[in-house]
Amino acid sequence: MNSKLNPYYLDGLVDGEGCFSITFNRHKNNRIEVRLIFEIELREDDKEILERVKETLECGNLYYLDYKRYRKWKPHFKYKVSNLGDIVQKIIPFFNKYSLQAKKRKSFEMFSKVADLMLLKKHLTSEGILEIRNLKDNQ
After folding, report:
1. What does the pLDDT look like over 83-121, one tens digit per residue?
2. Tell me: domain 7-137, CATH 3.20.20.70, correct?
3. Could you say which DSSP state residue 74 is in?
């Protein structure tokens, strides 16, 4: 049995449960780090789907999340890709080929623009960080 997912199923899953995020982290030396993160989080009993997502996209990692502080929440697994090379070479081409249909499409388009800026090393300058912040804020 092929454990890779049908790309249209994966596309729909991401439309509903996926997240394309841009984070800004300030380091002790006041340097700001920009990171792109693609992730899907599902309950523990759906771990197999996330394993198949990882196999289909050929990148990323799974993380176990135990929400003990929230009594009614069951444990979850998170599939996460934060490596810029994987995002540019695997995640973005996949979703360019299999277009998202819902509101995640706009988020993905902004995510892709920021990836292009990062490839140009714009995230390493104050002006570039401001440009990325403006893109994110005006999404």
Report:
1. 999 999 999 999 999 999 998 999 999 999 999 999 999
2. no
3. P
Alpha helix segments (H runs only) across the chain: 7-17, 47-57, 84-86, 92-97, 104-119, 126-137
CA atoms within 13 A on the CB side of 49: 20
Are 89 and 60 contacting, i.e. CB atoms less than 8 angstroms apart?
no
Sheet bearing 61-65, strands edge to edge: 18-26, 32-43, 76-81, 61-65
Q: Which residue has the tokens 């049908």?
A: 6
Confidence of residue 136 (pLDDT cuts 50, 70, 90): confident
Global pTM value: 0.90
Domain extents for the chain? 7-137
Residue among 70, 71, 8, 81 at smallest CA distance from 40 = 81
